[in-house]
Records
---
Amino acid sequence: MPPRNARDVSSPRRAIPLSMARGPDEYVPGEQEPGVLLTSLRDLLQWAQNYPRSRSIWPFSYGLACCAIEMIQAASAPQYDLARFGWEVFRSSPRQADVMIVSGTVCTKMGPRLIRLYEQMPEPKWVISMGQCANSGGEFYDSYYIVQGVDTLVPVDVYIPGCPPRPEALIEGLLKLREQIEKQGLKERGEQ
Ligand code: SF4
């Protein structure tokens, strides 16, 4: 007498409802689960808001020094190809951009212009600080003419270390920003 739950190998395997499966050998992952997804309305709206946003971030290129060459490489060179993530449209106008990528050394004269351009970007907006100069002054640390971190001027969402960071690091930074956007609540930043 065959053991209990032994499968008849001569017959084609059929998907059996989970409630009727008598043992692990009859369970086929993915075939018995009911095709129903439960969620709350708030979570659904949050997903509907954040998913498209996180997949179509248009960068405002703010290349100031050597780091900008790496940013241009990430944006334009075929081996990096930001287009596959939906970020390929580098804008020259702040009014059409979502994320400001500050790549390079920010001198004190540039500071007020940077703030003005950030304010001209529509909400919601984000900032990536690319490279040690933008992060903390870098090799110009404690210099009287270099801003000691772009976060002293505008709120920064992602910091990318390196001197210079490679294009892969910028892609990693943009992926981190994508994660942040996916997790944010329904309110826009700055809303009460
Ligand atoms: S972090 Fe290094 S590569 Fe980038 S702008 Fe400063 S000196 Fe140049």
---
Amino acid sequence: MNTSITCRHRVAIVGGGFGGLFAAKRLARADVDVTLIDRTNHHLFQPLIYQVATGLLSAGDIAPTLREVLWNQRNTSVVLGEVVGIDLGSRRLTVQTLDHRSEIVYDSLIVATGASQSYFGHPEFAHHAPGMKTIDDALELRGRIFGAFEMAEREPDPSARERWLTFVVVGAGPTGVEVAGQLVELSRHSLRGNFRRIDPAQARIVLLDGSPTILGTFPDSLRQRGMRDLQDLGVEIHLGTVVKGVDEHGVETNSTNPRLRRIEAMTKIWAAGVEASPLGRVLSDAAAAELDRAGRVKVERDCTLPGHPEVFVIGDLMSLAELPGVAQVAIQSGRHAADTIRRRIAGDNTSRPFRYRDLGSMATISLFRALAAMGSVRVAGFAAWVLWLVVHVAALVGFRNRLSVLFKWTVAFLSGRRAERVVTTQQVFARHAMTAQAAATRPEATRV
Ligand SMILES: Cc1cc2nc3c(=O)[nH]c(=O)nc-3n(C[C@H](O)[C@H](O)[C@H](O)COP(=O)(O)OP(=O)(O)OC[C@H]3O[C@@H](n4cnc5c(N)ncnc54)[C@H](O)[C@@H]3O)c2cc1C
């Protein structure tokens, strides 16, 4: 695509996540042409991915298409494609859409490509322990989770059945805690009475973390409360336990306890560690910018790339003042970048530092139980759960999505059932992984 015939200021935004989308919206009434490029066609509300994986919500509930979100923003075009190259000298992006390659010229660039799962130098773990970063991850996990109960139902050998009914979650940050809580609710409540040969409530949910605590970023009182709540629900928590190996049948850990050194489990979920998008390395090579340990780009105080005031790096890809990789940092840094571009167009070239306003942290444990910390206020239990619910519904992008999520939650709360348990033949990887795992477990002829 060649946009060089336009005479307006051209802003290219790479990534339609929290940072990129909120930057684009902030430019709605600016005298600029905006091009938003994403390799997916949707904006993903990552905090609720685990609810898609566990059958509470559908993919569409948390992932409205970028075209629909921005349909009436006349100065903005959406491009589906992966940015594979950035030429800072000629101010051009190279975009790959399947086998089609094109170029986009910019005057200002906002790079908001986020982060992916880190397996701490063991990318091979990903095959057996998917992470939770994309809709594909969520649907694959859904296939594995519901598939595990199906396989357990068909399994005559008690130890193999136990292996199908053991779920290991690696990483006890908010995501790991939330998914562990959901697995308990799914097995103890939603699947009650659905099977004839197994009792899903017998499922063993194991939460592992190498650090000495769960929810490392939360205040101590809430961490303790979270531990107690999870243990009350029946989640087995093992802290200071580092995963050393992952294979189709289980995980190996550094524990000296023989029961934990190897945990037999067909379903493993990786919720530990993040690694910045590879575009961080591209920018660092092009501009000699420093990267931090997670591969995030060290930016100036106004979120610009050192030596390139026309390039902003925001959100999870940005390394600035040890700000955490959370949605509010992405949203606020996206708005800051957009505001800076607007001011420059109005003739004000002064550089203003990005100031982050911390709105607090939240995590749900289960139905009616959550934790919330806002400034010096700490709330746990039902009040925190109501707060969590209100904040998440309000933060979802799009009125229809809010309505749909609220409706599905209400039905799930009242009935205890989940509406989104469909696993389709399109979820090929999950199906193949399950087939391979089952074949490796026992010969076909002995299965009932
Ligand atoms: C499971 C999970 C739960 C979370 N829960 C919370 C929570 O409860 N509260 C909270 O505050 N934060 C939470 N976070 C963190 C929060 O979602 C991130 O901090 C936030 O999404 C970062 O926004 P971003 O715009 O930087 O990146 P993202 O939202 O990750 O968006 C990046 C976008 O860039 C696109 N992209 C990547 N590479 C390319 C490329 N080369 N070309 C084109 N497009 C590209 C991607 O498709 C994606 O759309 C959670 C994250 C996860 C994974």
---
Amino acid sequence: MRVYIRTYGCKVNQVESEELAARLVAEGHELVRDEELAQLYVINGCTVTGEADTKVRKGVRHAASLSQVEQVVVTGCAAVMHADELAALGEKVVVAASSSKLNLATDLTATLPSALSFHTRAPVKVQDGCENFCSYCIVPYARGACRSMPMAGLVGHVEALAADGTQEIVLTGINIGRYCDPETGADLPTLIRALYEQGGVHRIRLSSIEPPDVTKALCNLLAEGILCEHLHIPLQSGSDAVLKAMGRRYTAAGYAAALVRVRAAAPQTAISTDVIVGYPTETDADFEATYDLCKALAFSKIHVFRFSPRTGTPAAALPPLDPHLVAARAARLRELSSELAVSYAQAQMGRMLEWVVERVDPVTDQATLTSREHLSMRISAADRITGELLTHPFDMMRSVSNISTEIPAPRSLEA
Ligand code: SF4
């Protein structure tokens, strides 16, 4: 059967889709890149915000409308939380609960054939689930309790990826700071060191890490060059009152202290974050505290989310703020994010960075590169090959992201 897989949401979903793809290929199905050719259309859906739900529903309707598609299978967090609603979207639609998919993913983690890793940067899922129960978040209900993949299996898996030419792995999970090897009790820093020393992979990146887990041991890995100099550390709010209401397990000062540790270990580290604006108890003063903290912490990027009530969470019972007010706050913070992204990129201008060649386009003769700091740029392909490592000075005007267009380039580059 010809299968097309569409993935929404986080890196965990991406990994699970790749694992699903591996299983389908092993069973003799054909993966297609053109959705129009698909007979089976799999949607791995996310439910992290109301916007994510809308996208999944739209995706399901679209998939069901394609003439060759015989069946649309919806899985992922969205399938768990909205099974009935999604199943009602059409006769072709079947909803597969995440629990069966997660078992499949667990079974496959240690045995995923490296040939089915689609990128030079391969995601490696090390953990699933979360028990933090932040007041606004549906994920613990959708994903369940924390569980970690055995370290020995992960080392073997990474060894196979490295032997197959993968230069960089991205460790993923819902709350990877809670990693705990079920066999030895090893924590995340111990796992990372083992993957580097025994797995033999050149670059290790973390998808996201909670502030309390940015420990001295983790920062030592940055200082030693074992971890890539890019961390995504969700802030959510810069107001202690809102952090407390959200059930977050740190204060604004505690968060800032974590960034001091990171920058003491590796000063040029790019630090990106998530911020929720418009939490129901957020006052003007709370928002200003968030804005000021974001500015002071000089993030390389802020992912701004407007608060979206998720049915079944404590925060959903609170009266919402005026949507116009929330939209205005989000716009201000997004503008700040653009400014900070440019500042970070400007500070890296001309630095010799280590890049991996993600892909080479023979039509444009351009190679797309990604640095350890998660900067991205294009250069002339020359004889570059996908997966190759190289050092090259960073040029903001060649950046693949929109940082070179949102704000005028520095004068020195306007030739
Ligand atoms: S840490 Fe909080 S926001 Fe993150 S997945 Fe767990 S409950 Fe959700």
